[in-house]
Amino acid sequence: MSRKPAAKTVKAASKTALKKTAKSSSKKIAKKTAAEGYLEAHGELVILTGMSGSGKLSALKAFEDLGYYSVDNLPLELIPRFADLVRQSNEITRAALVVDVREGMRLDKFPAILKQVRKVLPTKVVFLEASEDALVRRFSETRRPHPMGLAKRARDHGKEVTETVLESIRSERKRLDPIRNVADILLDTTKFNVHELRAHIHAQFEDKGESDRNLTIQSMSFGFKNGVPTDADLVFDVRFLPNPHFIPEFRPLTGRDAQVAKYVMSFPQTKEFLDKTTEMLDFLLPHYIKEGKSYLTVAFGCTGGQHRSVFIAEEMKRRLEGSGYRVKSSHRDMPR
């Protein structure tokens, strides 16, 4: 979808703010930097980028709701300057911005720019994406042209172009690979509506205060027939468990129903799997926390994502909550 570039306004605002704030402090900061070799961290920056139609603006709105200072469509070359403004500000402690990378942008520069920004502020890159079918459907529903198609038409001096939306999506995905490869978080929005995306962002980035267990865990179920979730950190295949689908009275139910849960738990291998997986996570989670990980997605997959994986995801949620962790469950392919 098209948006007016913020380059001029951001440049003007940046220059004005820099004149007011940087003059008095830049010399002191420069001396301190030279002496210590680094800039004192003040604030936090989230860079949102990804596929057109994946929900970047909705994600930015979610960050704004969390109290982040938000900026849309900031050119790459202005990110270091913006990060420095945030670091110097007494009012802005957390900021989120959308980098809308299209034709003409030197994407190979992004890793170097990111490295420069991280010397100024703690920074996370969130890359939003979705399946081709989902993106095509979204552009069809909004009746908006794909930005890559518009860019190609502009290069052709307004001549009609024959590139389809699907071709534009594939072209954009290929162009964005350099940024995707350095992203800290890959967020697949294929199954999300706006409200679910907002809830996901809030669960991952909401300030919950200092804690020894400042980690949010998502216990997810999915069906292998629909593919493995791209945002999963750990994936477990539970198709070795007996399938309730082949019992007629269980077929319309899900793993949340008591009858299905009782059936799946009736097999000794189920309890053994749960016990061993719990033991492994009890070992792993403190190490993830120690390295600063704030969000972990543990995905359990069965054939269709309706019975076995749903039960296992819910049971693991219950067990991990019992150990004092913050856990939410989600069921990507469970019928609603």
Description:
The protein has about 325 residues and is an alpha/beta fold. It has two domains: about 5-205, P-loop containing nucleotide triphosphate hydrolases (Rossmann fold); about 215-330, no CATH class. The chain is about 45% helix and about 15% strand. It has twelve helices and nine strands. The strands form two sheets. The chain has a five-stranded parallel β-sheet, with helices on both faces. β2 (about 70), α3 (about 80-90) and β3 form a beta-alpha-beta unit. α3 (about 80-90) runs parallel beside α4. The longest helix has 30 residues, at about 5-35. The radius of gyration is 23 Å and the shape is globular. The model is unreliable at about 1-40 (pLDDT under 50).
Q: What's the architecture of the largest domain, going by CATH?
A: 3-Layer(aba) Sandwich
The biggest sheet amounts to:
5 strands, parallel
Q: What is the share of helical residues?
A: 40-55%
Alpha-carbon distance between the two ends = 30 Å
Q: What does the radius of gyration come to? A: 23 Å
- In the CATH scheme, what's the topology name of the largest domain? Rossmann fold
Mean of the pLDDT scores? Answer: 82
